[in-house]
Amino acid sequence: MINPKLTPKQKALAINLDPDIYGTFAEIGAGQETVRHFFRAGGASQTIAKAMSAYDKDFSDAIYGKEAKNRYVTQNRLRKMLRYEVSLIEERLSRENNPGRKFFSYANTVTTINFDKTMKGHGWVGLRFQLDEKEDYSEIVFHVKFNENDTTLQQETLGGLGVNLIYGAFNYADNPRRLIESLYDDISTDNVEIDMIDFSGPAFTYVDNRLMSLQLVKNGMTDAVIFNPQGNNMLPADILYKKNIFAVRGSFRPVTLVNIDMFEKGLEMFMKDSECSIDEKEVLFEITISNLRASGDIDERDFLDRVDVLAKLGYTVIISNFSEYFRLIDYFANYTSGEIGVAMGVNNLLDVFDENYYKNLSGGILEAFGKFFRKGMTVYLYPYKDPENHEMLTSSNLKVSDNLKELYKYFKLNERIVDIKNYNPNFSEIYSREILNKIANHESGWEKQVPEDVAMMIKERGMFGYKEELKLKQFS
């Protein structure tokens, strides 16, 4: 029998009735929406040490310090709030007089929808807490984007999220996947998006935040998540805002010399065409959820193998649910008006020109093209050598359906589709599926078709079905 989900009031009451949970609430920008649940539930005197809203910026600065560029809705501000409030509890309450107490600090810094409804609102929400009085503090921090078009509704959603976070931290810390799912208890994923989350501290020693990011996309809580080569979850708005974006999509199972050649030669052309500096660009390697699910349920070990290889090469990774390319470009356009470049192979471009992909769009393929071939967007096309007839396919000789030929010519003539001409012809017969089969079947020769560091990593860690002991037996 499945236990029914508790309402925010029931969750708040459960926390209030636990004599050992005790802490503060600091909420900025959208009212004290979380703490009111605890006040209304009853028994709050045993839980709430203090509730405050340092709404005025000058007063907030006096408490937590000033922020760079006067930005208050930031992760840095939130973490300052959490740590400052916990330090006050520790300073003002004696552990000897409060045995067994597990202290916490909940905080949010949020801006809701503006009067003109041109900005829907977003914010940071977090909790710093103990699972044992002798344990150091752990933290859960996440970023939200509101989708509702009413301030009151956004405030109510924020209050529910806060209650779910506090209840989840004290009840599901040993199961962070369940904790993430519980954030949406009594809340629709249509109302709010969580596009970045971070777990830290002793309660989450063995948590890989990249897997937690994957849960957000997998559960429909966001469309895409990004993490850097160090494995840190990044806020999309922070790294994409006003940047020139260059992206490469692939399975990267494993990364091959073709992937690297396509990326490097495409990026070289993009940098020249966009006339941007290194600081003005962002490069992303994209893996879609549909690709991760290609063989059934998502294999988390396989997922980590792919992103670990990309991280080894120093690349930033985006995981998305964008099966169609136009959705990826539309996503980038929400953050930047700069140039956008996508490197892809011939087969991928043929998929872009396949009308079957757009049956669910009211405007069909024309609607998709309107979003995909938007101003400032260019496809950098990598050639493909047909393994059967050995013909090299480029933008000049690939065949699209008859009714799309003129449209294709239009995009090509206007240089929205350009060939990567300085590619390495020695890589033209490298096919990732063949490499994967060789690795799994313990055949030799694949090592020369992937970057040297990647080959070493696959062998050392037994990635993609590689087993060192079986390989040794093969050659003994």
UniProtKB/TrEMBL annotation:
SUPFAM superfamilies: Nucleotidylyl transferase. This is TonB-dependent receptor.
